[in-house]
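protien #1 (seq + structre)
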Amino acid sequence: MGEAIMNADLSTVLGYGGAVVLFATTALVLLVRADLAPAAGLGAVLDGGGKWFLGAALGAGVIAFSLKLVIILTLSSFPEQTIAPLVPPPATAMVSAESPDAFAPSADAAPGHVWKALPPVAPSPPDNPATPAKVSLGQRLFHDPILSIDRTVSCASCHDLGLGAGTDRRATAIGVTHVPGRRNAPTVWNAAFQARLFWDGRAGSLEEQAMGPPLNPDEMGMPSAQAIEERIGADASYREAFAQAFGDDRPVSMRRVVQALAAFERSLITADSPYDRFVSGDAEALGPGQQRGMWLFQAVGCVMCHSGANFSGASLIGPRNPYAPLLASRSPLARSHGLGADKGRAGEAAADGIWRIPSLRNVALTAPYFHNGAVGDLSEAVRVMATTQLGAVISNDPGLRRVPRWSAAEERFRVVDRLVLSEQDIADIVSFLNALTSDSLSRGAARIP
């Protein structure tokens, strides 16, 4: 029945097209015979069959043009019957990770993506160049609880550089009040490459970020910048260290405190992961499953947000795309982890939160995940991101990739392609994310009891 309707529709179009061609040809022939030839003084030349020859030659152009219009009209009116059968469906075959060439899907969400290794040195702002004395001072301040009201909490309390891979391994940070905060403590490793800091991205530099925790009543609880300056300035060894770092004997200032902390944090770079070795030319650095996971990470679109050498659109290097909505409203899995409650930059009335895109460097060591620290397993975190950000279906059934959906506006079904990730896909992506782990941090993590 559908074929009969299609043929009837095509016949109607071709019928109208034929009438148009016949009318145009007749009009042109008459015009040439009655007007063009006499006006050009060709009456004698075109007597008899000559006029008909001229009319036929010009009419052929009209016919060819009309046929092209008919073809274009037919293709645009009936794409499902004319064009769609000629277009191969996207690759949906389930593949094994045993072979490094067994990559799927064949479609690529980011065909222009270029993989880069992390630079070994982070850039410093012109007003705060790094020096050994400044970095040393910042390291001392980072580990000293002198910056907290009761001298019990240091920067390192929430950002353990060794066993915690720059985090405290808690769901949310705990400060001087001993009450869990609202958000998870991000790692400080490679934070030097980030253009936006904190989960909501409210700080635009390491210096600005370092100003926050000491004065936050729930974190380190100091009452004012002046109180910090007076406490540190009362220590003769600190006065000497500040003079060495900044080249004079002026009083300790909060600006110089955060500059020293930022200078130290810019030294916290991990460019020694298997991934870095792989993109730098070591073809054996990643196994077949990790390479397939790397391809999937690009092909399904993860790199659209987690881009550049630091795997974050909020970085100083690579494409700049610092914020993204976390579409928890469309993922029951995300909502089951409470990821829709805190809206970040979006405000409480928003349907979904907006967050700074975090780096995925050393992500295998920095659980628990997300702003609320609600997800403790990296595989689960990948499932959450796949269902929220990519709209993916997690299933081992490849038949779910193409589904019919009724279009009321078009009064017909349309076949919709959707992303389906298998458990093997998830495992390979996780395997690739493990390859972003620093060798030196990995050796430290192995000592965790």
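ok now protien #2
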Amino acid sequence: MAQPHDQPPTHYALAYSEYRRYATGALLSNIGLQMMAVAVSWQIYRLTHSTLALGLVGLAEVIPVVGLALPGGQLADIFSRRRLVLGSSLGILACCLALAALASGHLVAPDAPALIAANQFLENLARRMGEQQVHFDSTVVPVMYVVIFFLGVTRAIMGPARSALLPMLVPATAFPNAVTWNSSFFQLAAMAGPALGGLILGFTSTGGDSYAPVYLLSSASVLVLIVAIYSLPEKPYPHSEERHGLESMLVGLRFVHRQKVILGSIALDMFAVLLGGVTALLPVYADEILHVGPRGLGILRAAPSVGSFLMAIWLAHHPPIRRAGPALFWSVTAFGVGIIVFGLSRSFWLSLAALFFCGLADNISVVVRHTLVQILTPDSLRGRVSAVNQIFISLSNELGALRAGTVAAVVGPVLSTVGGGVGTILVAGVAAILWPGLRRYGSLAVTKLPETEESVEP
């Protein structure tokens, strides 16, 4: 591994070739997956015109992620993290290709009784919740939910393994910088991916074929990640003498429960995004409120990531945050304010500005939370603790999408969004009272990552 003596501190992690390869593959694959997410949400909304259908996308993905995250974390502490990431990437590639085949007509969703019954159930449920102008006529919709479910299965395996692999690619002193660059690259992907996806959808026809190019490009991007991970040398992984049963699987949960700083940071993020997330409703805003179509949808989805990317670049060029606790709570509060402004806005440009501001605030929260989880967790538990963190993230993102969709079906998208922003601010206040240690937490600077649980201060 190359020594970074000639690199400035802001590029510390980038001096390591293994990290550069990993980050390049992750960046390009995330761009493709963000493109895919835009296409999936737009396709399902155009097929159904149902906010409930958008929320169910999150539910279809979160069930396997939550159900399999703890076993996935245990696998990351037992087996090769590189091979787990490689195998799960192949699974994601298969899901992208399946969506492309459905969209192009090469894979035809049959008029099977089970699929027709699923559509009837979903339409009746949507109408009971107050949505009258909905139609679940295409059997493509339930098949897409099945593909999204399997995408969640692959995420459950990949998430803990990827998180636990990252500290093995750089030394401890470069790890906070690697976290910040990871956040920068993710936000760059989340900025470019939706914009590209919306642009492609806007330039193609409104039929099913318009989605296939997006899904095919997503497949190609995941293939780049597979090549990058395959090129990495095999890393030694921790071998524990403990038995690998249910008891071992729950060790990560117990560790997080004891470490109040970790528990508070991931719980705060979970409830803030669970209440304040608006991504699931962006197709509704683009189509019915702001009237900007699929291109506008791509720009709306990219706006938070533009803010997050700029904040991540700023953080990467400055020392680790010195007052991480106050920064975390203020950033969550600011995120809630931005969501309220977006919910009330009828101007496309004001909506973009509000989402941009949300991205600025959210990135601070992401960097603080992810850094705390990794620097306070011993390597022997990092896979299982990352799995717990993934459960919290998935609950916030995917159940947040379900909450937004179902509440919008009852009270409308505006009240759903504004109420979520208010709830986010209230959550920040309650969390500041419940976890005073997190509120007072200081610098994120670190010189050595813990190797054992005994080396971690409670």
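The longest helix spans residues 17-48.
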